[in-house]
Amino acid sequence: MWDYTDKVMEHFLNPKNVGRIENPDGIGEVGSLACGDALTFTFKLGPDGRIADAKFQTFGCASAIASSSVLTEMVKGLTLEEAEKITNKDIVERLGGLPEQKMHCSVMGHEALMAAIAYYRSKGKGAPPAVKSGKIVCTCFGVTDEEIRRVVRDNNLTTVEQVTNYCKAGGGCGGCKGQIEKLIEEVQGDKVRQLRTAPEPQPRKLTNIQKIALIQEVLGEQVRPAMRAHGGDIELIDVVGNRVIVAFRGMCASCKLADYTMKEIVEAKLHEYVSPDLIVEEETDSAQRPHNHQES
């Protein structure tokens, strides 16, 4: 369902500089497995003070792998001052574009680079990752007001949906969307107020077949890898209207955190990438449950 460029597919299928540099000069770790995306970026400086080598390890989708891979190529040969000027928009441009719903992968790459440079400038003290500045706005994904202001300003965003695409804020329960709107207006001022007076385009309505295919893809890219890493798995059993019926397999089937995983990870991911109206349920008695993929 995602419209990936040839460059994205090249870096996804044949990623460059995968791994972790031993005794790196800089190391940046962002994201978390709980949110579905995690990235570790390391670099080594050469005698001339330029970045001689850079590697990455990421746990995420094709866009996350491609963004991380191309970033390692972009920074090689640069001074830290030059590397600092790289933006997430530069990463996207080098890849020939990313789907709107995947822009947060480029932001994650930029954040990892900045964190690695900050680590180096701590003079190797091995300080723990810096605490995020600002106040948490999106509790589902741990995004602060400062992070939201930055992505709005750097990428000229004007809607909550765009903010969600760039940093995931608002992509879970949706309870923070009002606060996100206020932050957008704070940064963009009259521009966003004028846009809000214009008629809003209606979102594209998915057919049930398209919805099922997109749900399958999101589960495969955003959910299943994290579960398999812990000896579990997830299977899509049925889609009935807005009800998404799943079954946990392996270690996940007997996990005490299954209910949390179902709502805070599976349902949150489907809200982010498919529709905020979806409700995820665990399979119960299959004999009592309809199997009708054509219901809309």
Record field, number of beta strands: 8
- The chain-level structural class is alpha+beta
Q: Ranges with pLDDT <50 over ≥5 residues?
A: 286-296
Determine the strand fraction and express it as a percent band.
15-25%
How many helical elements?
11
What general form does the structure show?
globular
Instruction: Write down the overall mean pLDDT.
Output: 84
CATH topology type of the largest domain: Sufe protein. Chain: A
Brief sketch in words of this structure:
With 296 residues, the chain is an alpha+beta fold. The protein has helices at 6-13, 62-75, 80-83, 88-94, 103-121, 145-155, 160-167, 177-188, 190-197, 208-229, 258-273, and strands at 26-32, 37-45, 51-59, 136-138, 143-144, 232-240, 243-250, 279-282. The strands form three sheets. Strands 1-2-3 form a three-stranded antiparallel β-sheet. It has a three-stranded mixed β-sheet with strand order 6-7-8, with helices on one face.
Tell me the layout of helices and strands.
Layout: H1 6-13, E1 26-32, E2 37-45, E3 51-59, H2 62-75, H3 80-83, H4 88-94, H5 103-121, E4 136-138, E5 143-144, H6 145-155, H7 160-167, H8 177-188, H9 190-197, H10 208-229, E6 232-240, E7 243-250, H11 258-273, E8 279-282
Parallel strand pairs: 7-8
Antiparallel strand pairs: 1-2, 2-3, 4-5, 6-7
